[in-house]
């Protein structure tokens, strides 16, 4: 009995400056294999479909359970995590590409630094440090905590930026993920104390206003985060903030 | 500052599309609908509009300047996007593309339409039923007007949907869904009004 083979067409790139090219691989099928275990198989024996020895394919991974966001890539045309992409559920040949919205480091590995920079820019944290004990913060209602937990599932994987038509080289849009984090931290009872700072940060160039409502982000998010609801809610908050900034406010 | 230049421009772009441009569009289509009664009713209504006091100021501040800003900034927005409907064929993503395509068609149509009517009027021609009947005597112009007017009406209706999102009026998915139905209802209603008007001249 001949072993069943799995065919992969992988977009490869030797370094950030060189042109990408396609390379085909055929590896023996194993039950329950995912894209990462297939890539590991290629790494173990880096020989392409023509039987030529080649370099092992580079990719990034971390948790292997879809919570870290590191292993995102474009699989059969859709950006998603390779750890939860089960080979048996994919149409063959399986096409792997890097998420080209981000700078490609090598093969399928990309540099998501812009997302972490955006989180810094929008102040996606709760400042609690001081020179003395500030005591406990205000309590958060349990129902609100459960709601906020959904927003906190964001793993900065970059899928929403890859799917967004307005995140590209023509625009400086920071993308849906950091915007939704503003909503998360503004909803926190302590975080709310710095709400205006975050709203003003997303009213800057490349911020909230660059959204064109294609709503691909909410369709693509692997964690089902209500990104477009966050964006619309922030549109409302910034409407008020803009008037307050312009006319002044008695708070 | 109330926000960055991008933020303010985007919000103004969205607002101008509805107030005053959207309101003007509806008014323009409704007044033209007099053509379905008879030539005299149309001429009377057109004459009333043209003899409004402070006409040049009304035109400048309600029509010319808002459309000019909306068009220039709209083109900037359009060419910033990298459309990807082949990969992400979701309903809203298609509307995103159609909004940009109809925007560009509408701009071309309006430029031609203003040249043919308002600019000719400035050169001394009289704008009346016969002028439109003459323009629409060619089948090509009928097709051009149908495409142009329907683009404008769609761009307005779908733009109304995004206006509600951009200003934070519709936040929840359900409200956005209802607003999709309502704005598409606006499209159908205005499409009927405008197509009836165009055929009244033929």
Key phrases:
heterodimer, A: 251 residues, alpha+beta, Ubiquitin-like (UB roll), Fumarate Reductase Iron-sulfur Protein, Chain B, domain 2, 2 domains, 5-stranded mixed β-sheet, two-stranded antiparallel sheet, 32% helix, 13% strand, elongated, B: 202 residues, mainly alpha, 3 helical TM bundles of succinate and fumarate reductases, 8 helices, 0% strand, electron transfer activity (chain A)
Write the layout of secondary structure elements.
The complex is a heterodimer of chains A (251) and B (202).
Chain A: E1 5-12, E2 21-28, H1 35-44, E3 72-75, E4 78-81, E5 94-97, E6 104-106, E7 109-110, H2 113-121, H3 142-151, H4 159-163, H5 176-187, H6 195-202, H7 216-220, H8 227-247
Parallel strand pairs in A: 1-5
Antiparallel strand pairs in A: 1-2, 3-4, 3-5, 6-7
Helix pairs in contact in A: 5-6, 5-8
Chain B: H1 5-18, H2 21-32, H3 39-50, H4 55-80, H5 91-122, H6 129-135, H7 139-166, H8 173-200
Overall description:
- Chain A is of the alpha+beta class and 251 residues long.
- Helix content of chain A is 32%, strand content 13%.
- Chain A has two domains: 106 residues, Beta-grasp domain (Ubiquitin-like (UB roll), Roll), CATH 3.10.20; 135 residues, Fumarate Reductase Iron-sulfur Protein, Chain B, domain 2, CATH 1.10.1060.10.
- In chain A, helix 5 packs antiparallel against helix 6 and helix 5 crosses helix 8.
- Chain A is elongated and about 75 Å long.
- Chain A starts with a strand and ends with a helix.
- The mean pLDDT of chain A is 95.
- By secondary structure, chain B is mainly alpha-helical.
- Chain B has a single domain, classed as Fumarate reductase/succinate dehydrogenase, transmembrane subunit (3 helical TM bundles of succinate and fumarate reductases), CATH 1.20.1300.
- Helix content of chain B is 79%, strand content 0%.
- Chain B is built from eight helices and no strands.
- The radius of gyration of chain B is 18 Å and the shape is globular.
- Chains A and B meet through helix 7 and helix 8 of A and helix 1, helix 4, helix 5 and helix 7 of B.
């Amino acid at each position: 009995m001949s072993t069943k083979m799995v065919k992969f067409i992988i977009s490869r790139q030797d370094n950030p400056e060189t042109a990408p090219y396609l390379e085909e691989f055929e590896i023996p099928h194993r039950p329950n294999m995912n894209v990462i275990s297939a890539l590991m198989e290629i790494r173990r024996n880096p020989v392409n479909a023509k039987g030529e020895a080649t370099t092992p394919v580079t990719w990034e991974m971390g948790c292997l359970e879809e919570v870290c966001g590191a292993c995102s890539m474009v699989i059969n045309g859709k950006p998603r995590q390779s750890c939860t992409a089960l080979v048996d559920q994919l149409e063959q040949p399986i096409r792997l590409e890097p998420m080209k919205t981000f700078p490609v480091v090598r093969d399928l590995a990309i540099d998501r630094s812009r997302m972490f920079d955006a989180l810094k820019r929008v102040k996606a944290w709760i400042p609690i440090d001081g020179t003395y004990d500030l005591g406990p913060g205000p309590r958060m209602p349990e129902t609100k905590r459960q709601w906020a937990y959904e927003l906190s599932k964001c793993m900065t994987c970059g899928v929403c930026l890859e799917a967004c038509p307005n995140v590209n080289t023509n625009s400086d849009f920071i993308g849906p993920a950091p915007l939704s984090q503003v909503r998360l931290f503004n909803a926190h009872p302590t975080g709310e104390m710095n709400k205006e700072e975050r709203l003003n940060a997303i009213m800057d160039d490349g911020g909230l206003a660059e959204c064109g409502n294609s709503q691909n982000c909410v369709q693509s998010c692997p964690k089902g985060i209500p990104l477009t609801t966050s964006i619309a809610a922030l549109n409302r908050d910034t409407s008020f903030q803009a008037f307050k900034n312009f006319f002044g406010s008695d708070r | 500052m109330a926000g960055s230049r991008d933020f303010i421009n985007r919000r103004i772009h969205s607002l101008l599309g509805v107030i005053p441009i959207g309101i003007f569009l509806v008014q323009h289509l409704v007044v033209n609908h007099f053509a379905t009664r008879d030539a005299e009713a149309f001429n009377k209504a057109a004459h009333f509009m043209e003899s409004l006091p402070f006409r040049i100021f009304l035109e400048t501040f309600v029509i010319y300047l808002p459309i000019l800003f909306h068009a220039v900034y709209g083109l900037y927005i359009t060419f910033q996007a990298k459309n990807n409907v082949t990969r992400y064929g979701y309903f809203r993503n298609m509307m995103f593309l159609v909004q940009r395509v109809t925007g560009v068609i509408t701009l071309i149509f309006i430029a031609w339409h203003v040249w043919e009517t308002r600019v000719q009027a400035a050169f001394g021609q009289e704008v009346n039923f016969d002028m439109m009947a003459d323009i629409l005597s060619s089948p090509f112009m009928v097709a051009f007007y149908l495409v142009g007017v329907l683009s404008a009406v769609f761009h307005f209706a779908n733009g109304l949907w995004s206006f509600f999102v951009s200003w934070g009026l519709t936040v929840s998915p359900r409200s956005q869904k209802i607003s999709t139905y309502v704005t598409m209802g606006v499209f159908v209603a205005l499409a009927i009004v405008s197509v009836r008007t165009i055929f009244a001249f033929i």
